[in-house]
Amino acid sequence: MNESSPVTETSPSTTKTELDIHDILKILPHRYPLLLIDRVVELKRRERIVAIKNVTINEPFFVGHFPGLPIMPGVLVVEAMAQAGGTLLLTEFEDRSNKVLLFTGIERAKFRRQVSPGDQLRLEVDVTGWRHMAGMTAAKMQGYALVGDKRVAEASLSCQLIDSPRGPDGA
């Protein structure tokens, strides 16, 4: 992280603009094998996030998808976009350990290229709508996944933040 950034990780009003894996683990509930972002390189509150997923041959899905031709499943590319967007949205809530962000829609998903071991996914997600009323928060986002300068996937995503059925300790 840039040392001149005057931010902390606890208050939404002073959200970091870059996050390492330790920061991400404090925000998202996902863990191996379903945590699909490794780093956040850009974060603008309620607007945009850019995250990185390093794709390695060690990913468990490559065992069966496909033997001899490892390809990251498109649904997991979309999930990675959603996790990036979820990271952005969850930074707005100090009590995020009591919340779960759920998909409510995936529209206009397009898969343009294969993602293979050794690729680095750049996940760019822009918030297109944000609504908070009566204790409910919902958002719409447009996500893009790129490898190098080539777009590999895109989708419009919608989600809703709900109270976790479990307490903050996961019990």
Q: How are the secondary structure elements laid out?
A:
Blueprint: H1 21-27, E1 39-44, E2 48-54, H2 74-90, E3 99-111, E4 120-133, E5 136-147, E6 150-163
Antiparallel strand pairs: 1-2, 2-4, 3-6, 4-5, 5-6
Structure, described:
With 171 residues, the protein is mainly beta. It has a single domain (12-163), classed as Thiol Ester Dehydrase, Chain A (Roll). Helices cover 14% and strands 39% of the residues. The chain is built from two helices and six strands. The chain has helices at residues 21-27, 74-90; strands at 39-44, 48-54, 99-111, 120-133, 136-147, 150-163. A six-stranded antiparallel beta sheet has the order 1-2-4-5-6-3, covered by helices on one side. A hairpin with a 3-residue loop joins strand 1 and strand 2. It is globular and about 50 Å long. Residues 1-10 have low confidence and may be disordered.
> Beta-strand level of the residues, as a percent range?
35-45%
Count the beta strands: 6
CATH-defined superfamily:
Hotdog Thioesterase
Major sheet: arrangement of strands:
1-2-4-5-6-3
Structural class, from secondary structure content? mainly beta
CATH class: Alpha Beta
> Any idea of the CATH topology?
Thiol Ester Dehydrase, Chain A
Structural domains: how many = 1
Q: For the report, how would you describe the main beta sheet?
A: 6 strands, antiparallel
> What is the overall number of helices?
2
CATH-scheme architecture? Roll
